Amino acid sequence: MQVFLTGASGYIGSSVLRALVAHGHEVTALVRSDQKAQAVRDAGGHAIVGDVTDTDVVRRLAHESDAVVHTASAADVDADFTETVTEALAGTPKPFVHTGGIFTFGNSTDISEQSPVDPPALTAWRASIEARVRASAARTTIVAPGIVYGRGAGIPAMFVGDGEHEVRLVGDGSQRWTTVHIDDLGELYVLAVHAAEQDGYVVAASGDNPTLREVAEAGAHGSPVVAESVDASRERLGADFADALLLHQEASGAHARADLGWHPTRPTLVEDLADGSYVR
């Protein structure tokens, strides 16, 4: 299968690229520089230097491909990009896999694909775009990842200590995060492409939901772990980002397992922080 991929040089997109290539797919990635193009080629893909806001290029690549995967999701990109792709793929069997996010569901101890939407300000822009994607005539699936970790990167890297300087929690650290390893997530995107569902939606969650304090204590490596007030977190990180990280969220990822055959196998976030890819 020929897959058109955006965000191939990013954290999620590079994992999706690796997984697609490993499953024998040919991947064409739209990237913004020669350096990023070389990274795509090194990973086994084909690269075109351009911009996802160029609707003519996006339309052509969508027509030329058997599937489209969009991981370069952003507030200033998604409206035009998704409209262009869904129009190009309308009425065809070609799947379009779009990227959402777990913050969409707000505070919840049992997030599923049927959960009500209650996003924080940080990601409120997603709701209208996702609604249009789901209402389109294209075969679409939205993948909503939990807190993505692994390979020493992602939001959890904020809580890796050096044994000396303090690791600050967001609030008191009692909130739970629903999590997914970056490499397990890449495999789920491939399954979503293969399923080619009509109006599919998948919560990408491993089922492991540690408290933020457990996360920070695993990553501290001898550094003191310090709680702070909500107001202090909002001042330090910015109100929108802090409010998203303060959400208490738990999910099992049951639909991805039962209906797509997904089997996450990588270490948990706490394990990876304690003695895996985040160890410096």
Automatic annotation (TrEMBL):
InterPro entries: NAD(P)-bd_dom, NAD(P)-bd_dom_sf, NAD(P)-dependent_oxidoreduct. Gene3D superfamilies: NAD(P)-binding Rossmann-like Domain (3.40.50.720). It comes from the Bacteria. Transmembrane segments: none annotated. Residues 7-149 form the NAD(P)-binding domain. PANTHER family: NAD(P)-BINDING DOMAIN-CONTAINING PROTEIN-RELATED (PTHR48079:SF6), PROTEIN YEEZ (PTHR48079). This is NAD(P)H-binding protein. It comes from Curtobacterium citreum.
